[in-house]
Amino acid sequence: MNMKKYINTISAALLILCFASSCVDLNMNPPSEASSENWYKNADQITMSLNDLYRKAFYGMESEYWTDRRTDDWAQRDYTYELVNGSATSATSTFEIYWDNTYKAISRAIRVIESIERLGDGDAYAALKAEAYFFRAYMYARLVICWGDAPFYTSSITVEEAYDMGRTDKEIIKKQVMEDFDAAITGLPEQNANGGVIRVDKGTAMACKARVALAWGDYETCAELCKEIMDMKTYSLYEDYGQLFREKAYTCETIWALPNSYAYEQTQAIKSFVSRTAGGNITAQPSWDLLAAYECTDGKVIDESPLFDPHDPFKNRDPRCAETFVVPGTTIYGVVFDPHPDTKTVLKDGVEVENKDNKTSKNPYAAFNGCCLRKGAQEEWKVGQYNENPLIIIRYADVLLMYAESLIELDRIDDSVLNAINDVRARAYGVKRDDTGSYPAVTTKDQTELRRVLRRERRVEFAWEGRRFFDLKRWGWLEKAYSHHYYGLLNAQNIKKYIADGNWFWPYTPDIDEDGFADFTKMEDEKLIVRYGLHQYDPKCELFPIPNSEMLINKKLVQNPGY
To answer: Which H or E run includes 123?
Structure first.
């Protein structure tokens, strides 16, 4: 469906989620008669329409690892995605869906605002109107970040007007985005649990505005907002990093998340990440590039640390490594994960079974890079191949690191910057910031070096949480990331010699450049590893293409360069 077709079409679905008490009541079937003409007559109907925005605007666009698949943190056995390999076109369906759903959300938010203004701005509607402002701000920000200039409207438009609408300068849109965020922050309650729904509140709006400000290089605004959130004392770091992603209830660190529920058909499919022995197909894994990014426990990168062993790359590493990757020889889904080709059998629920996670001739593509995703993994994943973990959109660790990044870029580095980074690093080790003997605390105040530290920190802290693409884009690193291919183990007929020479896991330590990128090309040239996926940077990928369906029906739209 294109923008013109849906501009005046509003569905209303009831989404009632009482997640705080581990209860989810969700009706995904909108009333068939619901439209702009017979809806939005009272607070209940407006609330129902806003509820559906959570599902329409976020579940399909913030989940399913959509952006992670298009970064160097992701490896897939037999496929690379269009941005990574330079094949994106205006006909790529992914971008059309992303574009359409964003404009649907904008149109609904506008309709809610207009309806409330028609009904009257009483206390019953104040928070709802602020919520609608939040959605409009978030969605327009998404458009600017991904597409640049975009069709822009702040009141309902007709189909004819939509056909005649070109792209508005992004600077105009950005100004409105910030004004809408401010309206949301002013009008939203401290805690919004209206109707039992996990809804945005003041802290959510502040954190999301900070994220957008950072994306646009407005470091001052980002730092101010993050400091205000920190001073609120509403949020804190959850003490156990790994358990944070296995919890099915909100934690003290969650600023905004939405629940998943298999019963109500709102889940993430995760069969690709489950080991083959446990019933998955393990076709997609965390990449070797990501594995190389974790520092050793001495705080040094792997090609500088004497603690690093390429034949056991999980040893002596930042604890977040073992909470993101399954360490070979450990148990997950009741199965010992062991990709070593000599391991013919493993324990599964206490019973010896055939090992399907190793590189044998029978399963030539099992665990092709020897890696498996642990982050967020639940025991029940092996049963239904779905994920009921909450969809975390933003959490307190991001506020701390956004604060640090902003002040680093402003070159206003003080103890508060180091404290913010060290709070996150110390939590990874299960200790407090002041316990500097138990984790590699950051002490440098050199801007260049601290920038590198911060960027490594973000990569390992938020691995597979949908932040890497936007970080790469913000730092101007898409070209660098897309120039690094992803690699895996030798095929079955060659791996025996590889093992016999003592080259398991990696033959030797890859070089790490100043920005934290690993170089595996020498190993590839020596035929010790295999390139499984070709990455190819194309400058056009800095912005998404406007869908071809939109270009065909609106001649005033101008396509982004290269498409």
So the answer is: helix 123-147
pLDDT at 525 over 50: yes
Backbone angles phi, psi at 338, to 5 degrees: -145, 100
Q: What is 393-464's CATH number? A: 1.25.40.900
Please list the residue range(s) of the chain that carry CATH number 1.25.40.390: 3-263+542-553
Tell me what percent of the residues of the chain surpass a pLDDT of 90. Answer: 69
Of 200, 190, 71, 198, the residue nearest 138 (C-alpha):
200
Cβ–Cβ contacts within 10 Å for residue 136, how many? Answer: 25
| pTM, full prediction | 0.92
Burial string for 232-269 (b: 16+ CB within 10 Å, else e) reads: eeebebbeebbebbebeebbebbbbbbbbbeebebbbe
The two structure tokens encoding residue 403: 């604060």
Q: What is the pLDDT of residue 66?
A: 84
Residue 18 has pLDDT above 50, yes or no: no
pLDDT over 60 (residue 32) = no
* Residues 150 and 165: beta-carbon distance below 8 Å: no
Q: What is the CATH number of domain 3-263+542-553?
A: 1.25.40.390
